[in-house]
Amino acid sequence: MDLLHDRIAAGLLDDVTLIFEVDGAVDRRLKLAKLVMETGVVLECPALSGEDEVARFLSARLRRAGKSMARAAVAALVERSGTDAQALCHETDKLMAYVGEREEITVEDVREMVAPTVELSVFELVDAVAERRPRDALDRLEGMLGQQAEPFLILAMLIRQFRLLVQGRYLLDSGLVEPRLVRLRAFDFNRVITEKGDSGSLLDEWKARTAEVLPPDPRQNLLGQHYFPFWKTLNMAQRLPAEMLEAALERLLQCDLALKSSHLEPRQEMELLVADLCTRMAAGATLDLETLMEA
Asked: pTM of the predicted model, to two decimals?
């Protein structure tokens, strides 16, 4: 590091350009960092956050190609691809090729061309479960299996989602999250809960008041999720009583044990699980769990 610092300080040849790519924050106190900031150009490329930033990013990219995208289409694209700039560029290029000479990219174009992630498919599956739509739920399961998603992975994501739903139900039942907030659009919901006031934001308050209740790991804590899955989980939790969610976790545990011990094919076990969650969630496990665990 010292040799590099001294070489840069001595001056580079005219036809030499050094590019440093840093993932994450830079320690500006470092001698080399100070020299680079004094003699070079620093470009910061923070990750996109929120629908507004994504809309501006995509608008600039599309404008250069003579295309446009409705706000609803942007929301649908974020729902399917997230806010990663590289993924958005890839999917946007695909959409521009798909629409051809047509100027506007619509919601229908996005739904036709951009495959939902496994994470989104899990959301859609649980949404179908909450609304008692077994055919749609089984279609979502089939789609994930068709994407070569392993049954154990799908089950793990379902278990995680139901655990988050239990947390969402707690936030609603405890009165921390008012139902009126959940009725807002996802972006408006995020704006309201993250807006800073004299005592911080609503989200900060929720985190402080649930510190001893919800998991400390942000990856397992509903309040640590991106605003869209947070908002969507709260919407689902409104439709599912706590007792039903607890019963669903029992049935998920049964499926986990069955995948490791049953003679049925994993696909069949998952299909039975989804059918049970849609039609008899409140019943919980269909077998005695203690006996199953002993087996």
From this structure: 0.71
